[in-house]
Amino acid sequence: MQYGWVGSILLIDLSTDKTKTIDTMRYAEDYIGGRGLAARLAWEYIPKEVDAFDQENPLIVMTGPLTGTPAPTSGRIVFAGVSPRVYPKPWYTHSTMGGFIGSELKYAGFDGLIIVGRSEKPVYIHIKDGEASIIPAEDLWGLNVRATVDKLRHRHGRRIEVACIGPAGERLVRYAAISHPPENASGHSGFGAVMGYKKIKALVVQGTGGINIAEPEHFLATCKYAMKLSCTGSVDYFLREEKCCNPVCGHSCSVNCRIGTLISNVPRRFGDGEIEAYQVFCIGNIWVSSKPIAEYECGELRVPPITGWKPEDGGVELHMLCDDLGLDLWVLLTLQPWLVRCVEIGLNSLEGLNLDPRNPVWFHCLLENISYRRGLGDILAEGLRRSVDRLREKLPNELIRLAEALEFAYGFPAHREGRIWDPEPLPFWIVSALMYATESRDPTICTHTSFLHLAELYLDNKEVFLSKLKPIATKLWGSEKSIEPSFEHKAQLAIWCQHRHIILDCLPLCDFAFPRLIKPFRSREEWLAAEDIYGDLDIEAKLLSACTGIEYSTEDLEIMAERIFNLERMILVEKFGRNREIDEIVAAHFKLPCSTNGTSITIKEFEKLLTEYYQVRGWHKETGKPLPETLRRLKLNV
Amino acid sequence: MEVTRLSSMILIVPDKCRGCGLCELVCSILHGDGARPSTSRIKVFRDRESHTFKPLVCLQCYDPKCMRVCPKRAIYIDGETGAKIIDEKICDGCGLCADACPFKLEDAVIFKHPSKKVYVKCDMCYQNEEGPGCIEFCPSQAIILKKGRI
Fold first, then answer.
1. A102: three-class secondary structure by DSSP
2. Are residues A374 and A438 in the same domain?
3. For chain A, how many structural domains are there in total?
């Protein structure tokens, strides 16, 4: 009997309308699931130098062995493939989301999907209890996300789970999301546009099957323990303001993470009636905020603050509009300040459009123009970096530099890098920098709780933080220097963060609750009084072992994570020409001073650090390619 | 059959439910079905658009109509918990109990098990020392145990 995994991955070829199944267990023990299994399949199915908009680019949808079980926060799903968002050229990456569709896919009998080929006409894929059908979707093409879901529910019943695209995905906007309304989307990697290219309007899933658990009693006891240890969500829980108990954003979530906002009884700005909305994304809070957020200034580089709008001014509705058009909300974080800066330096119109980016009505129109690719919207739909390349001759140097700073890492928005949007001081931003340099996308968005969120505790009281964390640093990262504000001993810490997050993305679990590096603290007093703050980093292995019946230790999972990280690197190196030179692109960004304490790193120092990182990884110091002995050690046959 | 006067019931506080579905998963695991919401004896109806979540479960009626109509007398009352329990060995799947249930909403309270072909309903986890699993695992205390009649 199969435990945890349900046993098969469905391959759908849209060009021939044929389907076949692949045995999950062929790779499951070595690559677990989610991001790991996706990488293994990508190695086999992605041809060299393939473009995101090419029918040979597969869209991989993958769950993990814990998806659909009561393991807390396990209701997650991973999308992978060649991303059109990546700048300057698309390459392989992944994107994860919560919700309920991952669990439903397993109840329908599949651990994952690989969708290859391209349909000539719009279709949607309906998966029900082991059967998949490709159904014409001409009547759905052109609809917004909510209307699509309503129509599909009307047709297939209320208890279906839907992931679909809106007009933005249909028109190949490079940051189009795969939406799983009302609360989830896989946005950053632009896989909505890959669905649009393949002419897939929606994935509709319903299942009545189940997932076998190897040791039910032990598993439930382990889940209960994990719930207790993750009850407060991320590590800086008690520093966040008190909020009501909100709806969950994913199946099996028992955690009060406080990142959502419930907004109700607010008159609509665009249209009639009142707003009833629950916004889970971090950015939701920004768009309904009335106070300026995250301003940054250095020399001639000035990032105007994100102003946001109050709910009654349209803030919530702009958020909902993005969801409905199928746009990645995060792009607003780069577009608004860039357009505001255009106006500040006297550039009042672009491509014939008068700019008024502080006005919610104007922004409402811009979002629609992007999604329908009209006028300036058609250019901005390519992402800020590509838009600036196209408008380069009309733009002053400052605006070009600003775009480079806002989307510094391969076209992804800056996040938790100590400068533009989050205030991580040293030693935190240097850990981010090493991760940014060596991953396929912005890595910090999925590494919150491992180390980066600890920055809030550091900023709250540096001395207390260092004294409490030093024993943990010595034990886990080999030296207490790793958490000191210096450039020493940071490679080990960055690698640890990367590995812990691969483990989460494979099982999968939410990075707002795990890993539990420190115990949950409910108040500042409790945190200050605690002598031993260490949480439990073995939870993941315990949950996986009890669920699957295969004994995994934390060390096993860490080796597995290292194998997957190196496989992802090999995909980038062998199929997309990734090398040291490309890794070093991000170095220039970290020459800018940190917004909290002014620290920065020179290109030369960064190069030294990168060499140290390569050495710890076992990569060639000039090319950045994993050495043959590293691949052998990890039993990676590529 | 001796009908005891003992009675307790599982009560739902809908305002506290966050829609996570842990109750369904724990229920199906404790009843030997693995993680399988379709066989859970408690069902969460979610309207995620309006943030309303309604778990539905048998209220263990004081005058259980399901029990009265069963031609096989497959439903009995557990002496300790007061739960009305369907004996799966006796049930022949006729479905009269589900028809008789005054709360037969969307086949949530008494329904045909998709694989066993017998009818199933909440038995208040009478075999579980910790009591009903849904109550034990609910992270927001939206499910509570009420002893005695209401």
1. helix
2. no
3. 3
Q: Do B36 and A262 touch (CB under 8 A)?
A: no
Q: How far apart are CA A410 and CA A433, in angstroms?
A: 13
Contacts of A111 (CB under 8 A, 6+ apart): A5, A6, A7, A8, A9, A24, A28, A33, A37, A62, A63, A105
pLDDT tens, B81-101? 889 999 999 999 999 999 999
- Residue A277: both structure tokens together: 């909305």
Cβ <8 Å between A183 and B21: no
Yes or no, beta carbons of B35 and A220 under 8 Å apart: no
Domain extent at residue A309: 257-406
Query: What per-residue confidence (pLDDT) applies to A445?
Result: 79
Which segments of chain A have a pLDDT < 50? none
Task: Give A351-371 as a DSSP string.
Answer: TTEE--TT-HHHHHHHHHHHH
Per-residue pLDDT at B3: 41
Q: Is the pLDDT of residue B4 over 60?
A: no
Taking the whole predicted model, whether its pTM rises above 0.90 is answered as yes
For B100-112, how does the pLDDT look when each residue is reduced to its tens digit (9 = 90+)?
A: 999 877 678 999 9
Contact B51 A251 (CB under 8 A): no
The closest CB to that of B140, out of A75, A181, A245, belongs to: A245
Query: Do A621 and A480 sit in the same domain of this protein?
Result: yes
CB of A194 closer than 8 Å to CB of A81:
yes
Let me know whether A387 and A432 are in one domain: no
Interface of A with B (CB under 8 A): 68-70, 72, 75, 100, 103, 107, 181-183, 207-213, 216, 219-220, 223-224, 227, 231, 245-248, 251-256, 262, 276, 278
**Separation in Å, CA of B2 to nearest CA in chain A:** 32
Asked whether residue A411 is assigned to any structural domain, the reply reads no
pLDDT value for A244: 65
**According to the model, what pLDDT value does residue B150 have?**
47
Q: How far is A544 from chain B (nearest CA, A)?
A: 14
Of residues B22, B49, B53, nearest to A252 (C-beta): B22
Q: Evaluate the CA torsion angle A240, A243, A249, A255 in order and state its sign.
A: positive
- Contact (CB<8Å) B137/A70: yes
CATH code, residues B8-147: 3.30.70.20
Q: Find, in chain A, the residue whose alpha carbon is nearest to that of B139.
A: A254
Tell whether A402 and A443 lie within a shared domain. no
In a domain, A252, yes or no: no
Predicted complex ipTM: 0.94
CB of B50 less than 8 A from some CB of A: yes
